[in-house]
Amino acid sequence: MTGDVSQLWVYLSTTPLLWLAVTLIAYQLGSWLFRRLGCSPIFNPVLIAVLILVLLLKLSNTPYQTYFKGAQFIHFLLGPATVALAIPLYREVAMIRKTFRPIAITLLLGSLAAIVSAVGIAWLLGGERVLLLTLAPKSVTTPIAMGISEQIGGLPSLTAVAVVLTGITGTVIGDLVLNWMRVHDDTARGMAFGVASHGIGTAHAMQKSRTAGAFSALAMALNGLLTALLLPILISLLR
Amino acid sequence: MLGSLTIILVCQLLGEIITRLTGLPVPGPVIGMLLLFCGLLLKQNLPSELEGAANSLHRYLALLFVPAGVGVITNLDLLVRSWLPLGGAILIGTAVTIAVTGQVMQRANRHNQQNEGGTP
User: Fold this and answer.
1) Interface test with A, best of B13, B55, B64 (most A CBs within 10 A)
2) What was the pLDDT predicted at A6?
3) Among A164, A172, A215, A168, residue whose Cα is nearest residue A194
């Protein structure tokens, strides 16, 4: 009997099917808990899913590479989903044209605020150099952030984690901070979520309003471009 | 649906080719997004099928970040060692970024609208 079970495990642990299915189950469990607990942003479905999966990988002694063989099918969809952000962007094109200057100013200051606050606070709290470089692109969407991190000498996998945590943090505290700062304009709220918390913030903003979602998608895309251009220059100035 | 997915994937592919050829530090999907956006601007309308494909991709946008997030498992030691600067930068840094971005946009918007009102 135990022989059968261990043989089944040997089979399952080599197919991508297992961890692909477990990832979907963990996410749906996260969504279910999120709704059950009154949609409080602290019980973010992504955070719950990540915690469940990390725990399962640790308990079953499964390396991340094995996990990723299954999860890569979900990860792959990030690319097409990023391309498809052109659609909400296009829907709001008239609005974007009308507010072009505010968007440009906000992007530049917001992008700088994201980089300087991340690096500055980590430095003040005694972070080592590699950590500062890893955190610098944390507000940018995962694929861009990992690319930048690698280029400037950070740790891309830790950057990916910091990016996800930043996204979750943004959705947890974003509405509180914006209400406290009396920012009620949907375009401004969208920009804030997009610049600070990339795709996770955009997913959150889309649920609140279509305009906020579109501006968040725009901010995320342009902030990604801008940070990719700004950060390597800033780092070379510091050296 | 198939046609729309093909368009999206071809844009991504072109984006990857462009970043590889030019050596831009910008990832392929972002270039792909800009290409699709320019294409829609030229076409001047949004096919409902493409909109449907985008909606179904975005309905579960948050799920797509899970595999990268689980990557935390490969850096648990650095994470434990540097929890204070890491947590501080993420928590305070994100709050500062949201506050600055939201405020600047709202102010710039008001300024923009006033200017538009002032020049008939």
Assistant:
1) B64
2) 80
3) A215
What does DSSP assign to residue A236? H
| Chain B interface includes A62 (CB < 8 A) | no
Domain residues of chain B, as ranges?
1-59, 71-120
Contacts of A185 in chain B (CB under 8 A): 105-106, 109
Distance of CA B3 to the CA centre of its chain: 23
Say if residues A92 and A98 touch (Cβ distance below 8 Å): no
ipTM score of complex: 0.86
3-state class (DSSP) for residue A239 = coil
Q: Once rounded to an integer, what is the mean pLDDT over residues B28-51?
A: 90
The CA distance from A80 to A86, in Å, is 10
Distance from the A9 Cα atom to the nearest Cα atom in chain B, whole angstroms: 21
Q: Which residue has the higher pLDDT, A23 or B45?
A: A23
Residue B114 contacts A, CB cutoff 8 Å = no
Does the distance separating the beta carbons of B27 and A78 come in below 8 Å? Answer: no
* Backbone phi, psi, residue B46, to 5°: -110, 110
